[in-house]
Amino acid sequence: MSRHEDEVRLGHMLDHAQEGVELCRGRARIDLDSDRLLNLALVRLVEIVGEAANRVSVQGQAMRPEIPWREIIGMRNRIVHGYDEVDFDILWSVIQGDLPPLIERLKAMLGRP
Predict the structure, then answer these.
(1) What pLDDT is attached to residue 84?
(2) What ranges do the domains of the chain cover?
(3) HEC letters along the chain
């Protein structure tokens, strides 16, 4: 995989992570239980972040050790393979606590404001 392709995947991670954080702005954890569209959207966005991470080349991942690749890809796998057991407390925690620092790292890597 080329460096350009890795940067495209990093951009996908950034875009979908940002969208997840934006969807939660002004929302509370309880909204995941009552808003089915929010629930579905956040699950899908986190899934895409993990899928894009999985598609970054091994070399590309090694060049960026500050990204928790294994955890991000693992979350995607748990969502996809355990679709009927998604823990919404963990999902909310990922959106609120893990995605904002990931977004900042990805922005810095990609030279985005």
Answers:
(1) 82
(2) 3-110
(3) CCHHHHHHHHHHHHHHHHHHHHHHCCCCCCHHHHCHHHHHHHHHHHHHHHHHHHHCCHHHHHCCCCCCHHHHHHHHHHHHHCHHHCCHHHHHHHHHHHHHHHHHHHHHHHCCC
